[in-house]
Amino acid sequence: MFGLTQEERKVVIFLAAIALLGLTVNFLAKKNSSLKSWVYVNENLGKLNLNHTDKEALVNLPGIGEKLAQRILDYRAQNGGFKSLEDLKKIKGITGYRYQKLKELLFLP
Amino acid sequence: MRHPLVVLAIIFSLGIILADKIRISPFWPGLLAVLFLALTLASAKKTIFFEFSLCCLIFLIGVLALRNYYYLPKCHVAKFIYHKNSGSCSVKGCVLSPPVIKGRRSSFILQVKEIQLDNVSYNACGSLLVYIKGMKEFSYGQELILKGKLNRPFVFGRQGKKSYRDYFYRQGIYVILHVDPVSPPINLGEARGFKLKRFAFCLKGKIEGLIFQYLPGLSGGILDAMILGEKKNIPALVYSSMIKSGTVHILVVSGFNVGIVAFIIMSILKLMRMTRRLRVLIAAPLLILYCLVTGSSCPVVRATVMAIVFILSYLLKREADIYNSLSLSALFILGFNPAQLFDVGFQLSFVSVFSIAYLYPRLKALLRIDVVKLVYFKFLLEAGLVSVASWLGTFLFIAYYFRLFSTVTVIANLFIVPLATLITLTGFGLVIAALFCPGLAHLFACASELLVSLLLRINAFLISLPFACISLS
After folding, report:
1. Are residues B97 and B184 in the same domain?
2. Per residue in A87-97, pLDDT tens?
3. B26–A12 C-beta distance less than 8 A
4. Which end of chain A is flanked by fewer CB atoms within 10 Å, N or C?
5. Do B1 and A3 touch (CB under 8 A)?
């Protein structure tokens, strides 16, 4: 009926298997939201949690030295944590340009 | 078999139809699909078993695709409507489509992220349609907080028939938010979403601005619809008169427009003395951009996929088959949204292309058009046959959905389609001239105005003929 060659058959089986797997994963993630974090890559993966990170990790970020890292930690301690990433702008030494760079490397849950 | 994708697309569609008719748990089709996948793998070398199990597998994937599409997660915004008149709530999300301004209100689609009910915030997902008073200029990706009331779409259709609510459900919209006029939207300002889509919508806004700068009023509105698919500036009377003559397809961006865009791109690149290979390589991404600019409607996606298949077949030096590329585009659209199978636009688009591809060569051979020596007369006959082939394929669908039977469709298309081609060409010419040589733009604007006027007059004349349009309702 289809007249497919052996190679074409393999491609069709592969595509059908991927479609079936994708549908199953999507359905299970919808049905059980706890599976979502297991199935989908967290968009904050590779970023630092600004309210939990330590000084050493902050210093390792590009554009942050010892002093600036200390100021960030001081601000966090004084204000009981960051409410939003925008609060970083209130810290001395974090300009608009630096904030744009840091925004990509940090997150708040 | 020369058209394996046609069989696969039909079987996949049958699975979708079954899932729409019978409410079954996805567990059993899922289990069966896994079994048939194993069978397909095991019988890869035995043709009959392989083909049978592959058909069953594709059919079951079609069933699962629709069931999965209609399954809403617990956090979906539709789950927050507990009763008919739910109270006021606050919704945070980002704009998915640029606002459509109609009358004194704007509407757009919002992708929900958070919902606040009785001062408690919940993470939410899904899309909703927003109605807001006044002319609002939001852009794609903009993050907003809106306050208002949530409703389900109303059922305007007759009992047992497909309704307005079904139409929205097929688009993945289960909720409408009527924004409270006393609580203005809070703009969080962050632009999210796909950068390419944001660029496409920005480009659309710029092109619209140029069109209306040189061609205000009805002519600009018609040009806007023909080039960008925006129907908001077309008066209802004009629109209904085009429906009556069966030429409304020129007011929406369709495969016809994609063909013209491809022709313009290829012509410009040819003028630049580029090689054919380079021309097709440049044309493909530009067609994808045009598809995004026009809002990725079903006929445009179909035409873009088909065009890309043809481009790839040229690059790979393989023969392109219209039935296979048509089926591939159907599988592509249904893979994203299986509910599109029940959409009138999807059905008309595919049926008209299929009937042109199937009937046109047969009609041509039957009437022995090739024997005609006069070139212009032959061209006219061929254009008429394309129109007849398309009409034969679609008239039953039009009669069923629109309760209309137009007797002038074939004649109207014979005059209006060439005019629409010229209008689209002058429209694109106007945009290009306005960008690079504004002095010439007025000439294109005048030509477009004349052609639009001619088109409206011909259309008005045709529908004024006795028995031009028979209402079946």
Report:
1. yes
2. 888 888 888 78
3. no
4. C
5. yes
Domain identity same for B61 and B93: no
Q: Are residues B82 and B33 in the same domain?
A: no
Domain membership of residue B177 (yes or no) is yes
Distance to chain A for B322, nearest Cα, Å: 16
A2-61 residues touching B, CB cutoff 8 A: 2-4, 6, 9-10, 12-13, 16-17, 19-20, 23-24, 26-27, 29-31, 33
Which residue, B46, B69, B92, sits at the end of a domain? Answer: B69
CB atoms B37 and A17 under 8 Å? yes
Q: Do B86 and B174 have their domain in common? A: yes
Residues B81 and B177 in one domain: yes
The label of the residue with tokens 């944590």 reads: A81
Interval B44-71 mean pLDDT: 90
Token duo for residue A35: 């599976």
| Minimum distance, in Å, between the CA of residue B41 and any CA atom of chain A | 7
What is the spatial distance between Cα A39 and Cα A36, in angstroms, rounded to a whole number?
5
Is residue A76 scored above 60 in pLDDT? yes
Mutate to test the interface with A, among B64, B76, B114 (most CBs of A within 10 A): B64
Same domain, B42 and B87: no
**Do B65 and B92 reside in the same domain of the chain?**
no
Residue B64: its chain A contacts at CB < 8 A?
A: 20, 23, 27
Burial class (CB in 10 A: 0-12, 13-18, 19+), B87: exposed
| pLDDT, tens digit (0-9, with 9 covering 90-100), for B114-124 | 888 887 888 88
CB-based contact B4 A3, cutoff 8 Å: yes
Q: Is B6 on the interface with A (CB under 8 A)?
A: no
Chains A, B: CB pairs < 8 Å = 63
Helical residues (DSSP H) of A5-95, grouped into ranges: 6-31, 33-39, 55-59, 66-79
**Residue contact A23–B44, C-beta within 8 A:** no
For the whole prediction, is pTM greater than 0.90?
Answer: no
Beta bridge partners of A27: none
- pLDDT above 90: residue B62: yes
Q: Cβ separation of B26 and A17 shorter than 8 Å?
A: no
Would B364 be classed as within a structural domain? no
Domain count, chain B: 3
The answer to whether B444 and B426 have CB atoms below 8 angstroms apart is yes
Per-residue pLDDT band for B159 (boundaries 50, 70, 90) equals low
Average model confidence (pLDDT) across chain B = 86
Q: Please answer yes or no on whether B44 and A3 come within 8 Å at the CB atom.
A: no
Tell me which residue range forms the domain holding B102. Answer: 77-193
Domain assignment present for residue B264? The answer is yes
B-chain residue closest to A22, CA distance: B65
